[in-house]
């Protein structure tokens, strides 16, 4: 499938799943706008190997004004935004009564409200041009809960609700909106949780297997490459009637 001529923004794409998705979209020919913190130059280089055009635009997506500036910059620079992948997300693990209020606010702002803001600001241009793809990286935690993840689970359930509403509001157009719901993917976000478990005895392998064994029957991690491939599929013509889906890629997590 070719995405030649398409402009794609992948939020939180300097690492992990977002980087995997950005690489796949670039490989398919899209011009990719990266966003996120950390190893920016490495991420740009990793996506640029596919030969297409790639830029990084900085924006803290917990801040609505920075989101508006980001979308405006993309529109000004490229004249359009065809594919929006809402991927940026953070996690915090604590029981609800001890959950730090500022962490709750941050997680809701980034994992949920940012998806609303990018979507509302991108849709008018997609409607004008009569084509668009919005792919929201939710989580199995958008469909089921886990203890100690109050803000994350609430935000991801919200993302799936928002995905359905946007899919309905765009149903009679060539714009689609879907969510992908990964199980465990070995990225920095999950490595933190493995490190917490390994803190007791330093045994990373045991901690990894325990983490997988509790939830993911395949006992294997989902990969960013697999999620990139599914995102690409959702961008294509074959997926034009996939609307409002919450598509789990989870090694069997939700089959239980
Ligand atoms: P990651 O930590 O590797 O990457 C997160 C990205 O978001 C990074 O690029 C980071 O710089 C960016 N980011 C963080 N705060 C930001 C902010 N305020 N503004 C802009 N960018 C910001 O995490 P990941 O595991 O690749 O997670 C990506 C998405 O996938 C998240 O939404 C996460 O909830 C979801 N997810 C991850 C897993 C998993 O097992 N790793 C499973 C299900 C869903």
Q: What does it look like?
A:
α1 links the parallel β1 (7-10) and β2 (31-34). This protein has helices at residues 16-27, 40-48, 64-78, 101-129, 150-169, 188-198, 204-215, 224-235, and strands at residues 7-10, 31-34, 54-56, 83-86, 132-137, 175-182, 246-249. It has a seven-stranded parallel sheet, sandwiched between helices. 44% of the residues are buried. With 256 residues, it is α/β, with parallel strands linked by helices. Helices cover 47% and strands 13% of the residues. α6 (188-198) crosses α7. The longest helix is centred in the middle third of the chain and has 29 residues, at 101-129. It is globular. The model has no long low-confidence stretch (mean pLDDT 97). The chain is built from eight helices and seven strands, in the order βαβαβαβαβαβαααβ. It has a single domain, classed as NAD(P)-binding Rossmann-like Domain (Rossmann fold, 3-Layer(aba) Sandwich), CATH 3.40.50. The structure holds nicotinamide-adenine-dinucleotide. Nicotinamide-adenine-dinucleotide (NAD) is lined by residues 12-18, 35-38, 60-62, 87-90, 110-111, 137, 139, 182, 184-185, 187-190. Nicotinamide-adenine-dinucleotide (NAD) binds next to α1, α4 and α6.
Describe the structure using short key phrases.
single chain; 256 residues; alpha/beta; seven-stranded parallel β-sheet; 7 strands; globular; binds nicotinamide-adenine-dinucleotide
- Low-pLDDT runs of 5+ residues are none
Q: Mean pLDDT across all residues, rounded?
A: 97
- Architecture per CATH nomenclature, i.e. the level-2 architecture: 3-Layer(aba) Sandwich
Bound compounds, each kind once, are:
nicotinamide-adenine-dinucleotide
Question: What is the overall silhouette?
Answer: globular
Largest sheet: 7 strands, parallel
CATH topology group: Rossmann fold
Using only C-alpha atoms, the radius of gyration works out to: 18 Å
- For this structure, what is the CATH class? Alpha Beta
Termini separation comes to: 34 Å
Helix content: 40-55%
Work out the strand percent: 5-15%
As for the number of domains, it is: 1
Supply the CATH superfamily name.
Answer: NAD(P)-binding Rossmann-like Domain
**SSE string:** EHEHEHEHEHEHHHE
Give the strand line-up of the largest sheet: 3-2-1-4-5-6-7
The secondary-structure class comes to: alpha/beta
**How many strand elements?**
7
Quickly count the helices. 8
């Amino acid at each position: 499938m070719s995405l030649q001529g398409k402009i794609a923004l992948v939020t939180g794409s300097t690492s992990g799943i977002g980087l995997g998705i950005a690489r796949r979209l670039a490989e398919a020919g899209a011009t990719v706008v990266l966003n996120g913190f950390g190893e920016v130059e490495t991420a740009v280089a990793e996506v640029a190997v596919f030969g297409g055009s790639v830029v990084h635009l900085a924006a803290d997506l917990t801040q609505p004004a920075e989101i508006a500036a980001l979308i405006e910059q993309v529109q000004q620079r490229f004249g359009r935004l065809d594919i929006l992948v809402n991927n940026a997300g953070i996690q915090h693990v604590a029981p609800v009564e001890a959950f730090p209020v500022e962490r709750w606010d941050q997680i809701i702002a980034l994992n949920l409200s940012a998806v609303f803001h990018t979507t509302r600001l991108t849709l008018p241009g997609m409607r004008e041009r009569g084509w668009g793809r919005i792919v929201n990286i939710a989580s199995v935690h958008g469909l089921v809960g886990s203890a100690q993840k109050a803000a994350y689970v609430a935000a991801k359930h919200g993302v799936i609700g928002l995905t359905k509403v946007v899919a309905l509001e765009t149903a009679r157009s060539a714009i689609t909106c879907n969510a992908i719901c990964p199980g465990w993917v070995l990225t920095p976000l999950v490595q933190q949780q493995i490190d917490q478990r390994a803190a007791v005895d330093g045994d990373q392998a045991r901690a990894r297997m325990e983490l997988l064994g509790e939830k993911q029957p395949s006992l294997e991690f989902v990969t960013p490459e697999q999620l990139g491939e599914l995102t690409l599929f959702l961008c294509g013509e074959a997926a034009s009637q996939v609307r409002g889906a919450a598509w789990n890629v989870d090694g069997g997590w939700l089959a239980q």
